[in-house]
């Protein structure tokens, strides 16, 4: 009898595995992440405030200048606690003075204790920030030992060649980082505010009277037409750095080219949140004009979104399979046949003898369907919403075939890009999916093709889930195979990754190039003209 999660009782000596959620159940999204990491180096989806870059470099410079016998310089943990104290102090300042500002490190913690000024006349920075081996989890503003800086920002700063990590785990600014530290320091008009900030970190307390004195540290300070703004802009428009050379040793400039594409796109779409459609727009533009566009970044964004669409197709099929498992417990053989026959029956009216058509023949028929890529995305989203899982599986399969056919005219360019930036070995790479899933199976009958996809997804999910578990105890499986029966655990819906465009959008707002409503400034339009 197969394992049944409704009747199973744990033996007294064991505990059932902890099943956890994961956003990448097929282990294919790394191919997308690798592409947008090349397109926007120095940014992540969690480094959303540009002025943190200058703040951290200034802080590292001040730490470097502390006397060697200073308490905080005895070990790397001392440096981390300086960073942590500064992050929390800045957070308390921001939530008091600018409570609606977003993406402030530690703001949830600061809001929780915002009334402490009324209760005990100061914020206890040391208590809320300092972290030691005995510190209880969730008792401080940030659990990661070196704060949000060490967890999120340092990677971006290293990519921009501003920070290094020394022996012993110390963070050190580079020569370029020292320049930013000085620029940031010079942007603090009230030099007494610098001494006050450092003094409060050392004391571990922040008082109400301090808040008005620290205004120049505001993350949302207007830095337009300042040396700080000029440094950030030059930093973002500079070459991508040694780490991002292509396989031929040529330096890349894709961040600058992406900024040009992004600003040009926003200039033509000056509405709030237009930035969200940037990848899709570039994808469609490249598909239409690929022979006219020589820019690596435009090809990169096309490649990124093609990966996303391929992943969305496969994850939709997987979603439909999970819903079917949820509906009824079946043997793996019966499950494969139920899915296959359901697809054939569902689409029978749209094809003549679909079961016996070859994959190559179905591709040519699907290519003539009027439905566009965005239509399929909308169909699938509606199918998920309505739980129409067989329709969803069909749309996922046909979207995959349509993408395969459409991409044929761009494959040579894509293969060159993938070679130049070592992307072929990334799991989920669209070119590899096309080859392994479709090209190698073109002569199969469509019914056998459906069976092949179902088997492949079952195997791929099982393999990636076990690989991610490693020696840990967390179970990432969305189904288990017990006595040849498929047992449903959790249903995951298809999703897209976030390609750092929100971070880029926020940076351009911080630089005064666009407004929060999506309107471009005069300087932004001048910059576009200069880059074209």
Describe the protein.
The protein is mainly alpha-helical. 55% of the residues lie in helices and 5% in strands. It contains 22 helices and 9 strands. The protein has helices at 30-39, 51-64, 76-97, 107-112, 116-120, 125-129, 147-159, 175-186, 191-203, 227-237, 254-268, 278-289, 296-327, 332-347, 359-367, 373-386, 389-406, 411-420, 430-438, 446-469, 501-510, 522-531; strands at residues 18-19, 122-124, 163-165, 171-173, 205-207, 330-331, 474-475, 479-482, 485-488. The strands form 4 sheets. Strands 6-9-8 form a 3-stranded antiparallel sheet. Strands 1-7 form a two-stranded parallel sheet. β3 and β4 form a beta hairpin. α3 packs across α7, α15 (359-367) crosses α17 (389-406) and α16 (373-386) runs antiparallel to α17. The longest helix is centred in the middle third of the chain and has 32 residues, at 296-327. The radius of gyration is 27 Å and the shape is globular. It starts with 17 loop residues before the first strand and ends with a helix.
Please specify the SSE layout and strand pairing.
Layout: E1 18-19, H1 30-39, H2 51-64, H3 76-97, H4 107-112, H5 116-120, E2 122-124, H6 125-129, H7 147-159, E3 163-165, E4 171-173, H8 175-186, H9 191-203, E5 205-207, H10 227-237, H11 254-268, H12 278-289, H13 296-327, E6 330-331, H14 332-347, H15 359-367, H16 373-386, H17 389-406, H18 411-420, H19 430-438, H20 446-469, E7 474-475, E8 479-482, E9 485-488, H21 501-510, H22 522-531
Parallel strand pairs: 1-7
Antiparallel strand pairs: 2-5, 3-4, 6-9, 8-9
Helix pairs in contact: 1-13, 2-3, 2-8, 3-7, 3-9, 8-10, 11-13, 11-22, 12-13, 13-16, 13-17, 14-17, 14-20, 15-17, 16-17
């Amino acid at each position: 009898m197969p394992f049944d999660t409704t009747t199973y009782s744990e033996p007294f000596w064991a505990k059932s595995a902890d099943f956890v959620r994961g956003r990448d159940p097929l282990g294919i999204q790394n191919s997308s992440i690798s592409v947008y990491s090349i397109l926007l180096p120095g940014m992540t989806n969690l480094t959303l405030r540009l002025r943190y870059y200058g703040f951290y470099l200034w802080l590292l410079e001040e730490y470097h200048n502390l006397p060697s016998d200073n308490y905080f310089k005895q070990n790397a943990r001392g440096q981390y606690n300086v960073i942590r104290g500064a992050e929390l102090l800045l957070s308390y300042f921001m939530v008091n003075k600018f409570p609606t500002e977003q993406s402030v490190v530690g703001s949830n913690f600061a809001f929780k204790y915002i009334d402490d000024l009324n209760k005990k006349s100061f914020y206890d920075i040391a208590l809320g920030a300092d972290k030691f081996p005995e510190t209880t989890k969730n008792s401080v503003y940030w659990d990661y030992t070196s704060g949000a800086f060490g967890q999120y920002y340092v990677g971006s700063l290293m990519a921009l060649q501003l920070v290094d990590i020394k022996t012993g785990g110390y963070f050190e600014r580079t020569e370029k980082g020292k320049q930013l530290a000085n620029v940031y320091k010079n942007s603090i008009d009230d030099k007494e505010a610098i001494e006050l900030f450092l003094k409060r970190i050392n004391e571990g307390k922040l008082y109400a009277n301090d808040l008005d004195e620290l205004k120049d540290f505001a993350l949302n300070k207007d830095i337009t037409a300042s040396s700080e703004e000029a440094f950030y802009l030059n930093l973002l428009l500079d070459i991508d750095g040694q780490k991002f050379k292509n396989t031929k040793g040529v330096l890349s400039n894709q961040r600058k080219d992406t900024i040009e594409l992004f600003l040009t796109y926003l200039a033509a779409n000056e509405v709030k949140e237009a930035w969200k459609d940037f990848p899709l727009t570039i994808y469609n533009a490249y598909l239409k004009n690929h022979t006219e566009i020589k820019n690596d970044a435009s090809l990169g964004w096309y490649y990124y979104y093609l990966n996303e669409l391929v992943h969305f197709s496969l994850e939709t099929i997987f979603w439909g399979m999970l819903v079917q498992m949820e509906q009824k417990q079946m043997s793996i053989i019966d499950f494969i046949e139920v899915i296959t026959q359901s697809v054939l029956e569902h689409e029978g009216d749209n094809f003549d003898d679909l079961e016996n058509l070859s994959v190559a023949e179905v591709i040519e028929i699907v290519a003539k369907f009027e439905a566009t890529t965005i239509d399929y995305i909308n169909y699938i989203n509606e199918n998920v919403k309505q739980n129409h899982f067989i329709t969803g599986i069909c749309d996922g399969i046909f979207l995959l075939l349509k993408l395969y056919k459409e991409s044929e005219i761009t494959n040579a360019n894509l293969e060159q890009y993938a070679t130049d930036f070592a992307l072929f070995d990334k799991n989920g790479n669209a070119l590899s999916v096309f080859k392994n899933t479709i090209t190698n199976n073109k002569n199969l009958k469509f019914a056998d093709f459906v069976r092949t996809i179902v088997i492949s997804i079952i195997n791929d999910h099982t393999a990636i889930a076990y690989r991610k578990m490693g020696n840990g105890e967390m179970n990432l499986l969305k189904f288990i195979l017990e006595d040849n029966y498929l047992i449903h655990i959790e249903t995951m819906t298809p999703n897209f990754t976030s390609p750092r465009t929100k971070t880029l959008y926020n940076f351009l707002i911080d630089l005064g190039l666009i407004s929060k409503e999506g309107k471009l400034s005069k300087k932004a339009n001048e910059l576009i003209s200069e880059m074209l």
